[in-house]
Specification:
Structural class: alpha/beta
Radius of gyration: 20 Å
Order of helices and strands: EHEHEHEHEHEEHEHEHHHHHH
CATH class of the largest domain: Alpha Beta
Distance between the termini: 42 Å
Mean pLDDT: 94
Strand order of the largest sheet: 3-2-1-4-5-6
Number of helices: 13
Largest sheet: 6 strands, parallel
Strand content: 5-15%
Number of strands: 9
Length: 303
């Protein structure tokens, strides 16, 4: 059954960037009744949006002319600045752009100024959650920027996220995301380390995930990535190691800029680097379990 369209001008939402996160947000917004128009440089992603019930745009400018609210989900700083220039050139004054990527604050601030000159408001709204979580609307939004623009976007956040927080001045959302991702980096590797210790002790992988997830040592990464580690299959990536390396660099630079020691985070870097060296760039970050298995010469208990 087709969802009833959300009423009002804010029912028209554009999505620039239809990768793992952008495509999931788009599909959830369609199911919530929004008229979604999306653009991606890859034609197959535009075709997937159409299959999900959205309308592919031929360019960022076309998308911007259609939507009163635009979500950007982009892989790099140059991509954000290029898309921001196109959004500004569309001349849709009064538009709000929800920027969800994990990028340096200075880059987002440059994009904010670029758009502000054209009467467009940029909100800094990075997301907490994996691609798999995004598909089932299990995301948290860390929003920052003008409060009025945030309130206008609340129905959109409700359409693709489990929860959202308004954190204050522009850039505060990214600061919170860097802190959250530091925990993700550590908890992902700690989950893998525990799994490998259990393997060496002869414990069943599936049983470990079930029992440990119900105990005091549980974490969201154990719950989300533990099953992938138990299967030893990292091909269906919710976060690719190659992309995660970009996030790791941003967190490291952020911490160094504050002269703040992050010894546990630093200790995980070599494990992710080893995953890259072992050919896991396109695999999910849960593959750090495979890296540690090789280091430990671990054998899994037979099924």
């Amino acid at each position: 059954m087709k969802a009833k369209l959300v009423s009002g001008t804010n029912s028209r939402v554009g999505v620039a960037g239809l990768g793992i996160m952008g495509s999931a947000m788009s599909a959830n917004l369609v199911r919530a009744g929004f008229a979604v128009r999306g653009y991606d440089v890859l034609a197959r992603r535009r075709a997937e949006l159409k299959k999900a019930g959205g309308s592919p745009a031929r360019s960022v400018r076309e998308l911007a002319r259609h939507a009163s609210i635009v979500i950007t989900s982009l892989p790099s700083a140059p991509a954000l600045l290029e898309v921001s220039a196109e959004l500004g050139a569309a001349g849709n004054a009064g538009q709000v752009v929800i920027e969800t990527s994990t990028l340096p604050i200075a880059v987002k601030d440059e994009a904010r100024k670029l758009l502000a000159a054209q009467g467009v408001t940029l909100l800094d709204c990075p997301l907490s959650g994996t691609g798999a979580q995004a598909k089932v609307k299990d995301l948290a939004v860390y929003a920052s920027g003008p409060g009025a623009a945030y309130r206008r976007c609340v129905p959109v956040f409700d359409g693709f996220a489990r929860t959202h927080y308004f954190l204050g001045a522009f850039g505060t959302g990214s600061k919170m995301k860097f802190v959250a991702n530091l925990l993700v980096a550590i908890h992902n590797v700690s989950t893998a380390e525990a799994m490998v210790l259990g393997m060496k002790a002869g414990l069943d992988c599936d049983l470990m995930v079930k029992v440990l997830a119900d105990g005091a040592g549980s974490s969201r990464m154990l719950q989300v990535r533990g099953p992938m580690m138990a299967r030893g299959d990292y091909s269906n990536a919710a976060m690719k190691v190659g992309v995660w390396q970009k996030d790791m660099r941003i967190i490291g630079e952020f911490a160094r800029g504050l002269d703040c020691p992050t010894p546990l985070f630093a200790a995980t870097s070599s494990i992710y680097n080893a995953a890259m060296a072992q050919g896991f760039a396109e695999a999910d970050t849960a593959c750090v379990c495979a890296v540690l298995e090789r280091m430990a010469k671990a054998r899994r208990a037979p099924k």
